[in-house]
Queue: 3 jobs
Job 1
Amino acid sequence: MVRIVLVRGDITEVAVDAVVNAANSSLLGGGGVDGAVHRKGGPEILAACRELRRSHYGKGLPTGRAVATTAGRLPARHVIHTVGPVWSEDEDRSELLASCYRESLRVADELGDRTVAFPAVSTGVYGWPLGDGARIAVETVRAADTEVEEVRFVLFDATAYAAFEAAVGDAGGDAGGGAG
Ligand code: APR
């Protein structure tokens, strides 16, 4: 069973084996988490993403998938880039969001990473309601069959932190809080 820890703060400052980036399918950067990861992690990360586009993902990384690169200057061994689904009123894309967490843990296992920091994927620019996004994140991580020992959900603001606290409570567990 993965230990879940909630942290208030900036994911680029969390020292773990793998930092998960809320990327887009181009893998060429953006705003939010993506912008922070590339800005703080430095050009090595973008260079590695470009190489992935050239060698494996000519059409871009599909939604729900995950791929790893160097972490550059971040206090981590790897960045795991995952592409969340954009929120849709008419289509239930929950499975794609769950896949982001499941696939990221699978990639972490392949790399031997034991501590993984996740942002609240899709709940920013991609518009996913925080409560539901938190529920999917916590349920998927709890149910995952993985060697990862600790997952830290790094929440950028109090609203997101509260949403994840509620999701952890609903999932019948307690998560150790952490300074942001
Ligand atoms: N650390 C932790 N969490 C952060 C940070 C940060 N530095 N910056 C933003 N967040 C939070 C947001 O508040 C939101 O709750 O991460 C969550 C995800 O928000 P986004 O980064 O906007 O990611 P997402 O909603 O998945 O949208 C992805 O946005 O930045 C672009 O290139 C990216 O096109 C892609 C899209």
Job 2
Amino acid sequence: MSSNRCLIAGNWKMNGILEEALDFLGELECNPAPEHVEIALMPPFTLLHSLCEPLNEKDVRLGAQNVYYEPRGAFTGSISPLMLRDAGCQYVILGHSERRDIMAESNKQLSSKLAAAWAAGLEPILCIGEHLEERENGTTNAVLKKQLAILEDVDGSAALTLAYEPVWAIGTGKTASPEQVTETHAFIHQELQRLGHDCRVLYGGSVNPGNAEALMGCPGVEGALVGGASLKADSFMQIVKAAAKAVS
Ligand code: 13P
């Protein structure tokens, strides 16, 4: 893992009310962040404003889990990139498999969201990953290549983080083996290089304190996007520490 690129990001998904978030903050001991590891948290929209300042004090970056691509207007229920900036966000997760699969988010929408995020000065964390059936029938690389094609006409200097999240490993307790992770990250880095992007690539999918060190130690892995284990300050920080060990 190259030393200055590691990011451990917590995706709270649709979890967290203010009281729980304040308890989490009270238990979060991460200032200063371990050397060479950046920490970020993506709570639900409702907590962004409240958590911005306290997280900033703890040297933790703030991000959102989604964004709409219009700056303002009659789009009931949507949140714009400008609103995320106003709430103190630096990052926004885009293309998470739960949005692609459950909310039927299309590549076309995703392209518009990427462009809108960049225009507002947000750094997207773009998620890609194959389903179990695709892993089993040997089409993983083809699926990832198709998902990455969204970057084809994008300027390579755009601020971007990628997250490889095999869908079958999300919330299942099953993680990709270090061999699978190493092999797939090598393919992703090669594809990114072909597309002219030199961005960091995180791994996501059932990362926990028990497997973090092995996963973060895989070549080509530059951090983690953590779901369930990011809801508790203690397990989240254990993952941060495992990453710090891997980069040291
Ligand atoms: P889990 O860590 O709960 O498997 O979730 C991973 C994820 O989807 C992060 O975006």
Job 3
Amino acid sequence: MTEGARVRYAPSPTGDPHVGNIRTALFNWLYARHTGGQFILRIEDTDQARIAPGALESIMESLEWLGLEWDEGPGVGGPHAPYTQSERHATGIYGDAADRLTAAGNGYYCYCTPEELTEMRQEQQRLKKPPRYDGRCRELTESDHRAREGTRRVVRFAMPTDGPPIVVNDIIRGDVNFDPSVLDDFILLKSDGFPTYHLANAVDDHLMEISHVLRADEWLSSTPKHLLLYRALGYEPPHFCHLPLILGPDRARLAKRHGATSVLDYRDTGYLPEVMVNFLAL
Ligand code: GLU
């Protein structure tokens, strides 16, 4: 068993926390307490358009109601403060990481407009190819870049186009192989300069010295990208554990049509926190 695991719950404040999402928090909290480690709350709010007013408060209230106190994070601070990505963004850490990646040839500026991207996707659909960025801005020369100075641009990761499969060693699933050639040159910095989930997540897990990433299954397909980012940035990757989702009786992902999904709805209808924790844990 790992002593003193550092784990995190990293919600995006896009609405009331779903019970499935809070279950991830519970598993992280349990693992931190079990190993005598730390449970960190990090707010992933770099997708500014998706932020819902009051969501941050609901997340904190849900955790507090269930007794999942965090050792570092909003409200309590800690050695890696701030713990909210929009505030971390202001310190320049994500931009610096993107600069390091571009300087080393692992990232590049892309000036494609939304219209060009739509056209590219349509063409790929027509040819029955998987939709992905075709890398056309990878080949731009110094003078091409100079000519585009001042135009809207993003920074993309330059995916290795061949090479061995990327192996995600997952604590639950074992080795999961991903073929790098089917992965996209994903965006690192958006045109507003904010990092994407992938970049901010990898940079923060490293800087916050996270030892174990315990998150929902739906993120498994992002993990090969994160592993490549770790490698390109010279970071030691954490251990990964992708947790199965909570399903409804019909085996589909638990959703509103199955009943209440918001943790706070259960509180408001009179459920005791112990009941909720017991249900989620089992
Ligand atoms: N911000 C992501 C979410 O909303 C975090 C995923 C992860 O834990 O890496 O679930």
